[in-house]
Structure formats: structure tokens, C-alpha cells
Design brief:
heterotrimer, A alpha+beta (about 325), B alpha+beta (about 100), C mainly alpha (about 350), B: about 100 residues, alpha+beta, two-stranded antiparallel sheet, about 20% strand, globular, C: about 350 residues, mainly alpha, seven-stranded mixed sheet
């Protein structure tokens, strides 16, 4: 059962694929992802098909609601739209995006959504981190790109954890709760077969969870995976953060949990935050409280399977 | 282009103080103190040595000599030239970050 | 003489009367927020709502969105104030006037136009014979030149009215150190000593221009030197200052004579005309009458009346060819005023070549 966002009183719509396609190609589909509502307009059929495959279980509004953002993907003229189609992105923010071929339009869409939340979201403290939750445990995994945090968060979410986000962890500054923002998980290069294999172990028809693989994008090969139905349905359920784990992916390593100091955890968490500097004192207080109340460690792991075991072990130690 | 090594801001003859408007916010853990300066919006981590030096400025304005004197009282021993150099380096850091400022005559 | 195009624009209507925010429908909110974000005025709307005490009555979604812009504008103003603090520290012992310009001056004077405002650079001015001393101090205290490219460095030093931007690696804010408020190549070039002499002490040992000169600087920057396209924020800032400084009748007495003295009458004519036409600014009739003698000839006036309201906000007015013409018409006008034609050609072609070669 989908819970309504506290922001909108309007009823959610249950669109079938065809209705969603019509919305996307006309006035736009009002998509809700966690605390944000975005109006999505897509002029290309192939992008709409990929979008619907990933987002069909998400809440959409039928009657107009106030949007945080809008995103419009369009072809600039007849020639470009039909002969050598290029997908242009309008995110309403005075920004020029490099157009990609329409066949990679889904990449443009996801990058546009990333840019909007990364550049304009200051009302929540944002961590470049994988965030998951289960049974009252709110787990933040701050890390740089390449640490495998995206894959790890996604991996945990297909083993019973609620996915908050694979790379945009949000914290409400007043309640100091983690705010889910379960976007499509963006998988790059080697992590694509790892996740496909991972999902196949526990889910039938596992390919339904993935878009096609987009080769030759600015970031290599990209594939999007939809979050679990449980994560989508729980997008308004918030959790207090109480564990911080710094993940380090190293194929040659022996799996290991290493202790770290609170100061180290504090600084790594601050460094992972894109808007700490803008938010200022409120962000300092929030991260100080978070680290005060959290158990912290670093894990080194060679495979996703090892990482999940280490996380479960560290989480379990706290309950024992 | 100016030589970077010359960029010592700290004035060894001046009296320094913690700015009255500073309003630092602190978080203290076992291994270090973290200070947030609401004027700059910057966060700094201070080890015990640096924390002690900044505390001396928080007690009241002082020049470098009286800083050495107070620090010796705490340590209950004379400080060697190497430590003095380290102190100057640290307070130059404070000055650069704006945690202390020279008192203008 | 309100303009029918800008009168229909929801952002301009709300800026003129923030109380309208209490009764907007969903569609109107989406239009307003879209326009405000593009014009960099969403923070202003939030500050206005706060100021008139209606923020808690706005839709929760809007309150949440505004919270983000509140943090942004507070952060940007904190960065400007802190950079001022660091500049002052670097210049301890220097005894010449360091004058705050633009956003920094507005912040120091806590003007209405700083409400919810985003400022990205710190602009200061010192007299031309002091600028090398100031630059030396900045470089010795850790600031670095942002422009490494030789051509741009040369352009700044020979033809510009400021040093190449300086950035301290610890902070992400750029300081522009000016010695004039207009490029030295401008056709109308003011006697800077007059402006510096009239500057008054402000916070933290800095100076600002006099109120009249602060407004004239903004005015000349927009209407003579800058780009009118998408400059609603600058028009609003002038509207705010006319109303705020204009509570003192002496401001109005001094305004036109000072513009005559500095050679800024045409720019002031445009500012007064379009502030009144678009924002409904309260300007004494005697001032409007007085500035009228400096109006351009009939054809230019008609063209400007046609172009300005259509481009002041990026989403306004006509589309297609007439919009293109009006945008580029205004761009060419202001760029043409900025430099003698032969130099303009050189600058553009060199830029173009570097862009093609991928060096710019």
C-alpha cells in the first residue's frame, strides 16, 4: 500500500502503461520519488518505454500538484528528431546539457534528475553515499566513486534491506531522520553483470529489473536497475541513522571489519556531503549528532557477497 | 607570481585574540576536537596540542611571547626551539583560517 | 505607462506584490517557481514571504522548496562576508580606501535588495595607482590568478578595468579587484577620483560609494555596459534602491546632477523609465521630467520600449524571429558601447579561434 507524501493532499493515480505513455508525451507525468515531485515530459517513444519499465510502480499524481522540478527531453527540430535523433534536456535551471543520441535518452534523463537534486537540494543534508534501512537500523555508507557503495547498497536492497538511495542519501535537518530517495540504481561497467547475477539468485525474470545496457556514454557502459517494490512502497518511511560504514572495494583483499575513530567517521561523512558547506551550522550539528549516536567502522571486501556478510555481521554485533 | 613559502600571515610581534564575533561551535571526541566557525562556515579538526593553544587565546588576547609563557606554565617545563617553531606554525594556521586575528592599535 | 507584456508575467506581479503568494493555485505556483528559478529570484520570493509574514500560510511543498533557497542565499552571503574578512586581514596596514562594490556593498549596507540574494563574487575597488600593491598582498597571502590563459591575462591587464580574478584555494569565491567601474575603453568613461572621493566608511574598515553613486554604478553596469537580456534581478535591485534611498528627498535632488557630472544620463534615463514601467517604481515627477531631456531620439526610444520588456525576463515576450532580433539587438547595442569596434572584432575573433581549437 502506497503512503502519501506529506506535501500533497491529491490522490495518487494508478496509470496503466498506455496512460502513462500519453501523460509523458503530453502535459507530463508527475512522478514522486521520496520527498521530491518532478514533472517528466519525454518526446521520444524509446525513452518513454525505458522510463515506464523502471518507474511504473512509482506513485504518480493525476491532478496537478506543485513540482520541485520539471524535466523535458526533446528533439530540437524535425531533422534531428527523426533522421539523426538527439535528445536535448531542459531542467529549467539555465544549464546547458550536452545532448546525447536519443538511443541513450534514459541516460540523459537520469543525469538531468541527478543534476537537479545535486545542485538545488539544500533543504536536506545530502550525502554522496549508499543508504539502506532495516528493522530500525539506518545505515549510511559514505564513499567516493569506485568504492562500490552503489553496488553494495543495491545488493543489500535485494537481500531484504529498504533502499533509500544508492548515491543521494538525504537527512531531514529537523527530525534528523534519513529520508528515502529511491531512484533507479545506476550501474556502471563491471558492476552490471555482478548485479544481474545477484538479482538472478533471488528473483525470477531478473532481467525485468534492468534497462538495456547503454554503451559508449561519457561514463562508459551504464545500465539502470529498478529498486525493489518494497523500497518503492516504503519511500515515505524514514529511519534514524545509527550505523556508518566506510566501504572499500579491493579485489585482492581479505574481507575485514576495521575500527575507525569517531573523528575519522565525522570527516569522511562531511567530505561525502555535497551541501554541508551551504547548510552550515545546522549541518555541523546534524552530523555531530549522527556520529555521536552511531556505531562506525570501515570494511574492506573483495566481492559483493563478502561485503553483505560483513555489513550483516557488524549490524548484528550491535544487537547481540 | 609570489613565492608560496613566503605566505606567512602571522605577525610575531602583534597581539592576537579570538574575534569577539566568532561564536565557535565545538564537537569533542576522544582523539580530537572539531570546531565549526559560523562566520566562515568552515570546519577544522584540532589535536590536543592545537586545542590547548587556541584555548589560551580564548582566555584572552596575547602576543607570541606570552603564549609561550602560558604554554610553559601548562607543561610545567621550558619549551624547546623545535616546539616553539611548531607553535608558530600552528598559530599561523589559526590566523590563516581566521580563528584568531591581530588586535589593531 | 505600465507595460502589457510584463504586467501579465506572474513573477513580476508577485515581486511587485508578494501578498499574491497567499492565493496562488497549483498551476500558478509551478509557473512562478519555474520563472523564479531561471531568473535566480526564488530566494527573493522566499525572503519576501518571510518578510511579510505569510510563509507559514504557503503550501507545505512551497515552504520546503523555499527552505533550500534560504540556505543557498544565507550561504552565499556568508561566503561574501567571510571573503571580506579575509581581504581585510590580507590588507592590514594598507591605508588606502578599499571600496566594496555591487553585492558586497549591498550586503554591508544591509539593503533590501540583498534579501534572498545569491552573490557569487566579491567585487572591490581601489585607486589605479594602488592596485599593484593590493594585488601583491593578495598573491603573497595565498590568492591565485584564476585566468591562466595568456590572451585573457593580457586582455584583463590592457583593456579591462579590473585585475584577472583572484581565488584563494581554501575558498570557492572569486575576488574581482577593480580600479574603475567601466572598462578603460568605454566611450563614456567616468572620472574615478570623483567616485572615490565621495566614498563613505562602511563596516569592517571598508568603504562604499555614496548612495547616489551606488545606484548609478548599478545603472551604468546594466544599461550601458551590460546585457539587458535576462536581467530582471538587476532591474529589481535598482527598483529597490530607488525606493529605499528615495525616502530621503536629498537622494532625488542629487541623482540627475550627479549622472550629468559622471556622464551617465542616458543609462539613468533607461533605468528610471523601465523601473517605473515594469516595476511601478515610485519616482518623483520632477525627476522623471528632469531626466527626459536626456532621452534618446524617437526611433531608438520606440525600439527600446519594444525590446526591453520582451527580454528582461528570459521567459517573457515574443518567440521566434522577433525574440531573436530583440535579444541580439540588445546584446549588440551594449557590446558595441563597451569597446571601439576594431577592438571588439579582435576580441571576438581571438575568442572564437581559441574556442574552435578547444583552448578557451
Amino acid at each position: 500500500m502506497k503512503v502519501l507524501s506529506k506535501f500533497h493532499k491529491n490522490k495518487l493515480a494508478a496509470f496503466d502503461d498506455e496512460e502513462l505513455d500519453t501523460k509523458l508525451s503530453t502535459s507530463g507525468a508527475q512522478l514522486e520519488i521520496g520527498p521530491f515531485t518532478v514533472n517528466v515530459k519525454l518526446e521520444f517513444k524509446n525513452i518513454r518505454d525505458e522510463f515506464i519499465k523502471i518507474y511504473r510502480e512509482y506513485p504518480f499524481y493525476n491532478d496537478p500538484v506543485i513540482h520541485d522540478n520539471y524535466i523535458h527531453i526533446y528533439g530540437r527540430n524535425f531533422y534531428r528528431k527523426y533522421m539523426r535523433p538527439q535528445a536535448f534536456v531542459d531542467v529549467g535551471m539555465n544549464e546547458e546539457f550536452i545532448p546525447l543520441p536519443a538511443s541513450m535518452g534514459m541516460v540523459s534523463l537520469e543525469m538531468g534528475l541527478n543534476w537537479q537534486v545535486a545542485s538545488a537540494c539544500k533543504q536536506y543534508l545530502m550525502f554522496h553515499a549508499g543508504v539502506v534501512a532495516k528493522d530500525g537500523v539506518g545505515l549510511i555508507m559514505p564513499a567516493a566513486s569506485g568504492s562500490g557503495k552503489s553496488t553494495l547498497a543495491a545488493g543489500l536492497s535485494y537481500r531484504g534491506w529498504q533502499l533509500h538511495s544508492d548515491e543521494f542519501g538525504l537527512l531531514d535537518l529537523e527530525s534528523e531522520e534519513l529520508v528515502p530517495y529511491p531512484r533507479a540504481v545506476s550501474l556502471k561497467n563491471e558492476s552490471i553483470p555482478v548485479m544481474k547475477n545477484w538479482v538472478a539468485q533471488s528473483h525470477e525474470n531478473h532481467l525485468d529489473y534492468f534497462t538495456e545496457e547503454f554503451e559508449g556514454t561519457p561514463k562508459g557502459t551504464i545500465c539502470y536497475m529498478r529498486p525493489t517494490t518494497q523500497s518503492i512502497n516504503a519511500m515515505h518511511e524514514r529511519t534514524k541513522p545509527n550505523i556508518v560504514i566506510l566501504p572499500i572495494f579491493d579485489p585482492a583483499s581479505k574481507p575485514e571489519i576495521r575500527p575507525i575513530t569517531k573523528t575519522m567517521a565525522f570527516f569522511r561523512t562531511v567530505m561525502s556531503s555535497a551541501n554541508y558547506g551551504d547548510i552550515g551550522a545546522d549541518a555541523f550539528h546534524a552530523i555531530s549528532n549522527l556520529i555521536d549516536n552511531a556505531r562506525v567502522c570501515e570494511i574492506v571486501y573483495p566481492t559483493l557477497d563478502d561485503a553483505v556478510k560483513l555489513v550483516e555481521e557488524f549490524v548484528g554485533d550491535g544487537n547481540g | 607570481m609570489a613565492d608560496k613559502s613566503k605566505s606567512i600571515l602571522f605577525d610575531k610581534t602583534a597581539v592576537y585574540r579570538v574575534p569577539s564575533a566568532a561564536g565557535f561551535i565545538w564537537s569533542e571526541w576522544d582523539d580530537a576536537s572539531i570546531v565549526y566557525d559560523p562566520r566562515s562556515g568552515h570546519t577544522q579538526v584540532l589535536n590536543d596540542f592545537a586545542r590547548e593553544l587556541l584555548a589560551l587565546y580564548e582566555d584572552g588576547p596575547k602576543n607570541l611571547n606570552s603564549l609561550f609563557f602560558e604554554f610553559e606554565k601548562i607543561l610545567e617545563t621550558k619549551i624547546d626551539p623545535q616546539t616553539k617553531e611548531q607553535i608558530v606554525e600552528t598559530v599561523n594556521g589559526f590566523d590563516t583560517m581566521g580563528l584568531i586575528e591581530p588586535v589593531l592599535k | 505607462m505600465a507595460n502589457p507584456i510584463t504586467e501579465r508575467n506572474i513573477l513580476i506581479r508577485v515581486l511587485k506584490n508578494p501578498n499574491l503568494m497567499e492565493n496562488l493555485g497549483v498551476g500558478e505556483w509551478n509557473e512562478l517557481l519555474r520563472e523564479a528559478k531561471i531568473s535566480n529570484l526564488a530566494g527573493r520570493l522566499s525572503a519576501d514571504a518571510e518578510h511579510i509574514g505569510i510563509k507559514e500560510k504557503l503550501p507545505l511543498k512551497v515552504q520546503n522548496i523555499f527552505k533550500s533557497y534560504d540556505y543557498s542565499s544565507r550561504s552565499s552571503q556568508r561566503m561574501i562576508r567571510w571573503e571580506m574578512n579575509r581581504v581585510k586581514r590580507a590588507l592590514v596596514g594598507e591605508d588606502y580606501k578599499v571600496i566594496l562594490l555591487k553585492g558586497a556593498a549591498y550586503i554591508a549596507k544591509e539593503l533590501k535588495c540583498t534579501r534572498g540574494r545569491l552573490s557569487v563574487d566579491l567585487d572591490i575597488l581601489v585607486e589605479k595607482n594602488k592596485i599593484d600593491f593590493a594585488e601583491d598582498k593578495f598573491l603573497r597571502h595565498g590568492w591565485e590568478h584564476h585566468v591562466e590563459n595568456d590572451y585573457d591575462q593580457k586582455f584583463y591587464r590592457e583593456y579591462s578595468h579590473e585585475l584577472p580574478p583572484l581565488v584563494h584555494p581554501d575558498r570557492q569565491i572569486s575576488i574581482d579587484v577593480h580600479h574603475s567601474i567601466l572598462p578603460v575603453t568605454s566611450r563614456v568613461y567616468p572620472d574615478m577620483t570623483k567616485l572615490v572621493d565621495a566614498a563613505v566608511p562602511s563596516v569592517g574598515g571598508f568603504y562604499t560609494f555614496s548612495n547616489v553613486d551606488i545606484v548609478l554604478h548599478s545603472v551604468v553596469h546594466l544599461w550601458q555596459d551590460g546585457e539587458v537580456r535576462s536581467s530582471l534581478r538587476n532591474l529589481l535591485e535598482q527598483h529597490d534602491m530607488f525606493e529605499e534611498f528615495g525616502k530621503d528627498q536629498k537622494f532625488w535632488d542629487a541623482l540627475v546632477p550627479r549622472a550629468v557630472e559622471l556622464g551617465f544620463t542616458r543609462a539613468l534615463y533607461y533605468a528610471l523609465r523601465y523601473c517605473k514601467m515594469i516595476m511601478g517604481t515610485n519616482i518623483p515627477a520632477r525627476v522623471m521630467k528632469n531626466i527626459d531631456q536626456y532621452a534618446p531620439n524617437g526611433l531608438i526610444r520606440i525600439l527600446m520600449d519594444w525590446m526591453v520588456p520582451g527580454v528582461i525576463s528570459p521567459t517573457l515576450g515574443s518567440t521566434g524571429l522577433s525574440r531573436w532580433l530583440s535579444m541580439n539587438g540588445l546584446y549588440i547595442r551594449s557590446h558595441w558601447l563597451r569597446m571601439p569596434p576594431f577592438m571588439l572584432a579582435k576580441h571576438l575573433s581571438t575568442k572564437m579561434i581559441m574556442r574552435i581549437k578547444g583552448e578557451a
